[in-house]
Design a protein that fits this description.
Strand content: under 5%
Helix content: over 70%
Shape: globular
CATH architecture: Up-down Bundle
CATH class: Mainly Alpha
Structural class: mainly alpha
Order of helices and strands: HHHHHHHHHHHHHHHHH
Distance between the termini: 41 Å
Radius of gyration: 21 Å
Low-confidence stretches: 408-433
């Protein structure tokens, strides 16, 4: 009886499964996109919420639950495998569109977003880890660019589609029928076609490194390890400004007289540029490195938010949200790739979970901060506040983070880091750290 052949690493060797996971993550993004245009308008027009902090409670609930679930997803996928976690996430997401359609009160909407947070935390986190498992160390930036592009292009397409449907047929139920279709298709593909990838991570890890405890990984990723902790705070601030854009931009635009279709266009343009941009920026980070692409992206987001604060027309806001999408595209896949660079395969899924705990905690922080400031001083003041925090976060990355991209003597990405001399820190933290 022959020896069991080890799994092959690399994008070409795993193209079919990788492509399938890209499609699955597009459906994950579509579940989020069903809310981007409609839900802030539903809060005021159907449930008559006046305080901004009240409107943003659905983002607060979503962000808090998704952040915690991200952390648990990494631990669960290391213990039980990636596929069971992915399937569980889709099962939990099935009731979300139905709750949004039938919600008799805002509390039901919050409950739907609790389930959506679990759905997104389990499914999106797992597709990230599975793609990192498959491609190996050399093409992480490209892999994350493709993953995040699929998710956020789907957010954009669904936000535009639901804006059009809401304008034609009303805020409920028609726009949320898209979400019901996404959930059913995602569950079917994940159950019947997706294959387990944990063996790829075990093959990459080998036997030389003993696993770290989850508590140790939490401490390293959050505070102690410079690149991981810098990435975690940048991810949190990035989603803090995304929470602001999600919850308050539609209200700001509506206050200036934009139609539902116009608001849907702006709500779609931001994630569209973000999504398509990642097709280039993820691969670019494999060539030029992670650190300064992240710094530049945070600075670009800060400028874009300032432009939103001073704008008062569709054309100005369109330019601003496109610039915001570009800055986010520079940051989003690059941060994930940096975490994948630094964390050893033996504990990488948990490190990604911790990073995403902080990153999606930004939704909750953004909802609280933006809601309080907007209620006290108005939406433009909230936008200025978040713009300042975004610029400051970029400075933290510039000072604290080192370059993480794996290099060879020739300077191209290979998955091996230099063992001595100047240049990037070692790619895999030793287990004794």
């Amino acid at each position: 009886m022959g020896a069991v052949r080890p799994p092959s690493l690399g994008l070409r060797a795993n193209l079919a499964q990788f492509t399938l996971l890209v499609a699955v993550n597009a459906l994950v993004g579509g579940m989020l996109g069903q809310e981007r245009t409609v839900l802030p308008l539903l809060a005021g027009q159907t449930f008559h919420l006046n305080a901004y902090i009240g409107v943003l409670t659905f983002i607060l609930a979503f962000g808090t639950v998704k952040a915690i679930t991200n952390f648990l997803a990494g631990t669960l996928s290391d213990r039980y495998g990636r596929k069971p976690v992915l399937v569980a996430g889709w099962l939990i997401g099935l009731p979300v569109p139905l709750l949004l359609i039938w919600a008799p009160s805002w509390g039901w909407v919050i409950a739907a977003n609790v389930l959506l947070g679990v759905n997104q935390g389990l499914t999106w986190s797992t597709t990230v880890v599975m793609k990192i498992d498959l491609v190996g160390p050399g093409r992480r930036g490209l892999a994350m660019g493709l993953n995040e592009a699929a998710g956020y292009v789907a957010v954009a397409v669904t936000a535009m589609a639901t804006g059009h449907l809401a304008g034609e047929y009303g805020l409920r139920p028609t726009p949320f029928l898209l979400g019901a279709a996404y959930a059913a298709l995602g569950l079917g593909l994940s159950t019947l076609a997706v294959r387990e990838t944990r063996g790829h991570a075990h093959h990459e890890a080998g036997t030389a490194v003993s696993p770290l405890s989850t508590r140790r990984i939490l401490t390293l990723t959050s505070f102690r390890e410079p690149a991981l902790s810098a990435a975690s705070q940048a991810g949190m601030v990035n989603n803090l400004n995304d929470g602001l854009a999600w919850g308050l931009f539609p209200i700001l635009f509506a206050a200036h007289g934009l139609s539902t279709a116009g608001i849907g266009l702006l709500a779609a343009l931001y994630p569209a540029v973000w999504g398509f941009g990642q097709l280039a920026t993820g691969a670019l980070s494999d060539r030029i490195g992670r650190k300064w692409l992240i710094v530049g992206g945070m600075a670009t987001q800060a400028v874009a938010l300032a432009l939103v604060a001073v704008g008062a027309s569709l054309s100005v806001w369109a330019a601003a949200v496109a610039l915001l999408g570009l800055g986010t595209a520079m940051v989003y896949p690059t941060l994930l790739a940096a975490v994948g660079d630094v964390a050893h395969p033996a504990w990488r899924a948990r490190a990604v979970g911790v990073y995403r705990l902080w990153r999606d905690g930004g939704f909750a922080a953004g909802a609280l901060l933006a809601g309080v400031v907007a209620d006290l001083y108005g939406i433009p003041a909230a936008v200025w506040t978040v713009a300042a925090l975004t610029g400051l976060s970029g400075l933290v990355v510039a000072v604290r983070m080192y370059e993480t991209r794996p290099v060879t003597v020739g300077g191209t990405g290979s998955g091996r880091s230099p063992s001595r001399g100047p240049g990037p820190r070692p790619t895999h933290i030793p287990p004794r750290v």
